[in-house]
Amino acid sequence: MTGYRETSRYADVRAFLSSMQKISASLALSSIGRTSEGREIPYVIASRPLVATPAAAKALGRPIVYVQANIHGGEVEGKDALLALVRDLVLSPDPNVLDSLVLIAVPIYNADGNERFGPQAENRTEQNGPASVGRRANGMNLDLNRDYVKAEAPETRASLAMFNAWDPDVFVDLHTTNGSFHGYALTYSPSLSPAAVFGGVYARDSLLPVLRERMRVRRGFATFDYGNFVSDDTVSRGWATYDARPRFGTNYYGIRGRIGILSEAYSHDPLEKRIKSTYAFVAELLSLTAERAGTIRSLTGRASAQPLAWGRATDSVQMIPIRSELIPSGVKGLVLTEEMESTGDTTVTEPGIPRGKRRTGRFKSVEMPIFDRFVPTLEKLPPAAYVLGPADTAAVRVLRLHGIVVERSDTAWAATRGESFVLDSVINATRPFQGHRETRLKGRWERAPQIIPPGSWIVSTAQPLGALVVYLLEPESDDGLTAWNFFDRGLRRGGKFSVRRILDLSRRGRVNARRSFAATL
To answer: Which of 178, 279, 454, 507 has the most CB atoms in a 10 Å sphere around its CB?
Structure first.
């Protein structure tokens, strides 16, 4: 024990988990995969009775909860809180949540970033200790919480494989905030994308309000919806949440039809309090999930059975939101703010504190607009299928990493009802982000019969991840494969996009003497 002066290193985590496995019959230890530098990414399964496979977990009929920590290597309290919680649950002889759910814990997801130890003032400038922490990015210098769509990092691919195999009902991602000085030990968020109708709405309106009250009453921690002040100088201008795009893990998971929850410990609190508030949040969330197991499992079943009943109903047709914007929630709310005072000297400052300011430890409630939800600005009617060209193999590989079923047409065929997207403009970002210059397209779909050449890839929307298919393949999506440069080849104004829509797969005409689909999964 270091008295909360240090955080665990990779070897510490591995040794701790191995020791737990030796003394507990309720815990199994494995690896989701390897990092870019070759480190195993450990995970534990904890349940009573213990299960070791997805099939065995499903057979129990209980919610599966996947809790991940340390996606940003310098944000350390989630890692240490999760280890402590797993220890306490598996070693307790008394009934607890492990009798009602299956817990999958990934305590050190960004293992490479965790091992890049350096001064906290450099690696986490707005964090109150410990003195030495890892860095944000992984070994490839990628932000893993911007990688869930493009899936370039081996950590992301391993994570997607776990999602596909285990299909957790709830995904929890543990972080540490940056920025605003407020009065909350922890802030949280559901999946923010309007396409996350099943899990996002239920978490926002049913789970998280109860969790907030239990954190206050049972644990003594004030919590609130994740956000920052619109202006730190004039906090009454409003409190705003973050980006709704699925490059962020919890947003992505909501579009898969499940519950995604973001946890953000307050970076300006000392490490001890951050660990304790995160521990309490996860413990209470597991307890609430166990209590509402029937509702959550039913929600999972509905999302899988109705994959395209996710959007706004228009004349009985379900639309999928692919672009959105942040709006006020409609009412003002009270937000706990810390009063900052001037030092009179702008040349001296403390790490993470605005120049010329100092903290007072005095808090007050300020009424302000709350910007915590997004509304669609562009929705699309799902076609029966999308068709990718024979050369679009990189996109196909990523679709399959997401768990999406892709088939290949052996021979040419004709679709009597189809559409091509005609490009009006191609907009490329001026600055690179995560190694990409993001692409945005504007244009229009034009109805016309389609001749599909042999070797084309067919992606039906009639599959459990149908809404994700639409989000990834629509050319105007704000965070699809187009944005990440998978279809840059040949893009020009007036040209046609390489991905086409088929509106009715039952009306296919022969071009050659025979036609078949060959699944190549």
So the answer is: 279
